[in-house]
Amino acid sequence: MSRPLLSLLTFLFLSIICNAFSPENPTDRKVLVLLDDLSVKSSHSLYFQSLQSRGYDLDFKLADDPRVALQRYGQYLYDALILFSPTIESLGGSLNAAAILDFVDSGHDLILAADASASDLIREIATECGVDFDEDQAAMVIDHTSFAVSDTEGDHTLIAGDNFIQSDVILGKEKIKAPVLFKGIGHSVNPANSLVLKVLSASPAAYSANPKSKLSTPPTLTGSAIGLVSVVQARNNARILISGSLSMFSNRFFRSGVQKAGSTINHGRSGNEQFVTEISKWVFHERGHLKAVNVRHHKVGEADEPSIYRINDELEYSLEIYEWSGTSWEPYVADDVQVQFYMMSPYVLKTMSTDQKGIYYTSFKVPDVYGVFQFKVEYKKLGVTSLSLAKQIPVRPFRHNEYERFITAAFPYYGASFSMMGGFFIFSLVYLYHK
């Protein structure tokens, strides 16, 4: 290979890497889309077009393509992965469940859509992310009270779901205008797992079973415990969307009208397009991504940051928090940001004030304990990326020449000492010279 050609290839590769996810531009840009069949590209084109219109570069590949790869020379080629291949048993190239989980562990994002014929591979990836699909391979979510009137098969597996999570960060400030059409498999979420959130749940009357056979045993998944769509925000702030329905993203469901059984309201269009668009904005960090900058602390009345504090010093602590809007950083406004002055346990815990422009500040007195302390900000809130800030600072006691020479509270002791000395002097004179 000639030197000019090698230089050109190196430049192109570095350009790909440099345009990837970065702290200053956290929105995913390069997205790999893996499909069971390339026909999905056209049957779900409205969803893909909505992503491309927002600046995403989608790379479509068959899931079993032997040339597919997430990384090359130790560098990831993509910022996010969309896995629209529910029936795939084995991924192509070097891809497998472990490679996809490593991709997420490296801070990248994932959208996974399954259906009633979900393969063991898809189930394994979902389980590792904290979501367990129904073990029955033929099971689907059935609802005899909240099914869509347009369910032509009559088995009530076409559900009009409207049991959404109450979070403006995840689903946007504008309320979802219509129920979401869902046809697929349900899943369960461990309630003790705080990283997994059900975004769309089934109604209390729903259950998971094989619609083509009679129930011989009670279903394992019932009611609102059934998750239809869930999200995961990992501890490294990677985000995952897991849906039990691939059809939910399809053009047909986007364009369909929806009317719930027992309701007279016929919505002109389902809420699928609005729902998946808003949740995709969250998954791809267009919303709810925080950063903290300009962390400062100093003594009251001073501007420079000291290398050490003295017990009982008055100090001020401040920082700035911004939220990514998809195009720029905007001030983040909240009333629950706290700072700890920490050594083994928090000696000081203060809720910080804000100027509504992204600046948070507080002041407090250094405790009367010396040692190595930390300023700690641990901010975790539903839907937003967590902030974890820590900075060590030593605290020393008073030096011998910094104590007050005469303490008012000690005046009685001073008086007792001088009176004792005066009495001893008088006693000595009387004893020596009295005859």
TrEMBL record:
Top-rank lineage group of the source organism: Eukaryota
Domain OST48 N-terminal: 30-283
TM helices/strands, residue ranges: 411-433
Main location: endoplasmic reticulum
Stretches assigned to the OST48 middle domain: 297-435
Compartment(s) of residence: Endoplasmic reticulum membrane; Membrane
Record membrane topology: Single-pass type I membrane protein
Pfam families associated with the record: OST48_MD, OST48_N
UniProt KW keywords: Endoplasmic reticulum, Membrane, Signal, Transmembrane, Transmembrane helix
BP-aspect Gene Ontology terms: protein N-linked glycosylation via asparagine
Signal sequence annotation: 1-20
Pathway of action: Protein modification; protein glycosylation
A GO term from the CC aspect: oligosaccharyltransferase complex
InterPro entries: DDOST_48_kDa_subunit, OST48_MD, OST48_N
Subunit structure: Component of the oligosaccharyltransferase (OST) complex.
Recorded family membership: Belongs to the DDOST 48 kDa subunit family.
Function: Subunit of the oligosaccharyl transferase (OST) complex that catalyzes the initial transfer of a defined glycan (Glc(3)Man(9)GlcNAc(2) in eukaryotes) from the lipid carrier dolichol-pyrophosphate to an asparagine residue within an Asn-X-Ser/Thr consensus motif in nascent polypeptide chains, the first step in protein N-glycosylation. N-glycosylation occurs cotranslationally and the complex associates with the Sec61 complex at the channel-forming translocon complex that mediates protein translocation across the endoplasmic reticulum (ER).
Protein name: Dolichyl-diphosphooligosaccharide--protein glycosyltransferase 48 kDa subunit
Organism: Capsicum annuum (Capsicum pepper)
